[in-house]
Amino acid sequence: MLQVDVDKSLGETAISVAFATRGRVTALFGPSGSGKTSVVNMVAGLLTPDRGRIAIGDDVLFDSERRVCVPVHRRRIGYVFQEGRLLPHLSVRSNLAFGRWMNGLRRDADEERRVVEMLGIGGLLRRRPLTLSGGERQRVAIGRALLLRPRLLLLDEPLASLDEARKAEILPYLERLRDEAGTPMIYVSHAEAEVRRLADEVVRLAAGRVVGTRI
Ligand SMILES: Nc1ncnc2c1ncn2[C@@H]1O[C@H](COP(=O)(O)OP(=O)(O)OP(=O)(O)O)[C@@H](O)[C@H]1O
C-alpha cells in the first residue's frame, strides 16, 4: 500500500494532500495546476514536503517528524516523464541498459527480453530516439523505467504530447503493463477517458487538495 500525507507550500500555491491506495493503477486526476506533478515529485523524492509522511508498505520514504528522507536513487521508484527524456546519442538498446547501469544493476537478458516483448519495442533496439515516433519513444521510456525493477512506477501524463492515433497505439501497452507487470503505478492525467480505461483507484485533486475518489 502507498500512503501519502504531505503539505507543501509552492509560491502562491499550498498543497495539502493525503491518500492511501492499494490500486494496480491509481490515477492522480485533476485540472492543470491542481498539484498532480508536485505530488508525484514528492513521492519520487525530487521535491521535499514541508511536512508529512510517505510510505510504501512498512518502508518509510519520508517522515518529517522522524526526520526520514530517503534519497531519490534509494527509493526504487520508476518515473516516466511527459516527454520521455531518452538520451539522444544512445541507441534504444543502450537507453534501456543505461538506467540499470546508472543504478548499479547488472544486465539481465531475460528481464530485458520480457520487457521488450511486452512493450513491442524489439524492432527498435538499434534506432536512436530522434528517429522514433512519440509513442515509440514513450514505450522505450517505460521499458527503461521497468528494467530498474521499481516497486512503484510513476507516469506523469505519458500520453500528453501524443496525438490521438499515437495515444490509441500506446494505451493497449499500458493496459498490458497493468495486467502483466505486477508493478503498481501512479498515473497522472487530466484526460477522463484514459483514467476510466486504466485506473482502478482515483485520487481527484483540485487546487492542491483531494476532492474525491471518483472521476
Ligand atoms: N517551484 C514552484 N514555485 C512556485 N509555484 C510552483 C512551483 N512548482 C509548482 N508551482 C505551482 O503549484 C501549482 C501546482 O503545480 P503542478 O505542476 O503540481 O500542477 P499539475 O496539476 O501537475 O499541473 P499540469 O497538469 O499543468 O502539469 C501550480 O499553480 C504551479 O504554478
Which key phrases capture this entry?
215 residues, alpha/beta, Rossmann fold, 6-stranded mixed β-sheet, 5-stranded antiparallel β-sheet, 32% helix, globular, binds adenosine-5'-triphosphate, ATP-binding
Can you describe what's shown?
- By secondary structure, the protein is of the alpha/beta class.
- The protein has a single domain (2-212), classed as P-loop containing nucleotide triphosphate hydrolases (Rossmann fold, 3-Layer(aba) Sandwich).
- Helices cover 32% and strands 28% of the residues.
- It contains six helices and eleven strands.
- It has helices at 36-44, 92-102, 109-119, 134-146, 164-181, 192-198; strands spanning 2-10, 13-21, 25-29, 51-56, 59-63, 68-69, 77-80, 152-156, 185-189, 201-206, 209-212.
- A six-stranded mixed β-sheet has the order 7-8-9-3-10-11, sandwiched between helices. A five-stranded antiparallel β-sheet has the order 2-1-4-5-6, with helices on one face.
- A hairpin with a 2-residue loop joins strand 1 and strand 2.
- Helix 2 packs parallel to helix 4 and helix 4 (134-146) packs parallel to helix 5 (164-181).
- It is globular.
- The two termini are 21 Å apart.
- The relative contact order is 0.21.
- The model has no long low-confidence stretch (mean pLDDT 92).
- It binds adenosine-5'-triphosphate.
- Adenosine-5'-triphosphate (ATP) binds at residues 10-11, 13, 30, 32-38, 190.
